Amino acid sequence: MQLPAALGLGQDDAESMYKAFNNVFLTRSGNAVFYKSAINKAERDGTWSASLDILGAEDAYERTGDPEKKTLVNELLTTWLDYTPTPWSWDGWNDDIGWFSLALIRGYQMTGNQRFLDAAKYGFDYAFGRGWDTQYNGGGIWEENPEYAARENPPKQATKEALANDSLGKVACMIYQSTHDAAYLQKSQQIYAWVSTNLFNHSTGQINTGIAQNGHVDTGSAAYNQGTFVDYAHLLFITTGNREYYADAKFALDFGRNNITVNGIFSNNQGYLNTWADEFARGAGHFVRDNRLWDTYHAWMKSNAEAILQNRRSDLGITWNAWDQATPSDDSLTTNKFVSAMAWLQFTPAEQPNEIGGIHVIVNQETRSAIDSGGKYSNGDAVVQWGVNDSLNQRWLLTQNSDSSWNIVNLASWKSLDCPGGKDADDLAMVQWASSREDNQRWWIDRQDDGGYKIWNQASGKALDGGSSADNGAALVQVGWNGSAQQRWVLQ
Rounded CA gap, 472 and 480, in Å? Predict the structure, then answer.
């Protein structure tokens, strides 16, 4: 198939790149579903390399919420675990365990598959348990554990690097979101504090590669290190509300934008690389989307997306790591080299988004109270209204599905606003539930003439209604739309 030259980023280009990637690399063999290791190789990509491939598929589901993409994520991770069961003591590299566990915990949040959560918890606990060391550098996780490094030929001295610490720190934060086990959040913050002290340059925003046992810092920079840190800092910001994490994320993002690009474009053609800017795509994508910073970053993100499209391999529709150079017709190139371009497109909308997406406090026009998760974390717990206090209970992350409906997820409980069973009864109280992105968790959000919003459920067709009570703890219900102030909401 010969593709036309890219004239600009279009609405369908992210989906087209995802489909092209799958057309080239996705393989089904019996019950196994996996990405092969290279264009011209039928063998299954494995271990950490396969995890990087799967993270790209997860990006596509995050963008769309499409059921078939959720199914594919579940199939890919199930096959991966079938071939790579725990224990993982055969692998001495803690960053490998980080990528294993990151794909798994993200997959758990998307699918609810308990097997993925169990394996992600095992991975973090194992890597942190063997890798966190206070004898050298005041803490930090070894990149390759010393007993494994000593067996290399020739033997190597173990170092502590951003790759292991930031990937595992993200995993710990996401396990906390999924379980509310505070020990994981504490460890995530502990790792972050060490990275901030030892690897983050507070004068420039650069993430350094690593630190040796004697304290010597490797000041090399890489898009994947920079991006993983951006995403890590942002995760801790939205999970704790601490704006110091926000400031770090923005500083690191700006360093990457200004210093690890070629004329603003991410591009690296080095053969030793696997992925390059996939983690930067996630870090920038999440940070910009959630904080509604499109005015600052959208044009730049779009220019990278258009470079990716302009330099696709014309017969396959995929782009390698060097986004400002034509993708060569080299069928020996590995699958990982094409993940970054696919990932970037999943986080870059063709048009600058409106003000609805991102983190909001949602306030009723009539009661002046905010939608609040009530400080509870369980499936089926009531969502209520409470006087505005800007706590995490009142912060909701609004992200969109491919049908233009919205997901509304609480930043304290990490549960979705849910219409129970999709029932259409008036005065039915709303609850929170683990995210499924089913119809009863999808909401239409329509701006009204007075600047307020009608928020109505896709399954029930009924509108969120604050009633007439301004009492703390008052129920949040649904009622057929009547246009009253109690059915109009302000997104703060």
Answer: 24
- Tell me the per-residue pLDDT of 409-468, one tens digit each, with 9 for 90 and over: 999 999 999 999 999 999 999 999 999 999 999 999 999 999 999 999 999 999 999 998
Phi, psi of 322 (to 5 degrees): -90, 90
Measured between alpha carbons, how far is residue 50 from residues 5, 59, 78, 400, 420 in Å?
A: 31, 14, 12, 27, 37
CA distance 148 to 156: 9
Question: Left, alpha or beta for 215 (phi > 0: left; psi -120 to 50: alpha)?
Answer: left
Mean pLDDT in the chain?
A: 97
Render pLDDT for 29-59 as a digit per residue (tens, 0 to 9). 999 999 999 999 999 999 999 999 999 999 9
Name residue 350's amino acid. A
AA identity, residue 479: V
473 contact partners, CB below 8 Å, separation of at least 6: 374, 384, 385, 386
Reference 280, options 222, 320, 235, 194; nearest CA is 222
Q: C-alpha 250: how far from its chain's center?
A: 16
φ, ψ of residue 88 to 5 degrees: the values are -110, 30
Nearest-angstrom CA–CA distance, 130 and 142:
9
Report d(CA 107, CA 233) in Å as an integer. 20
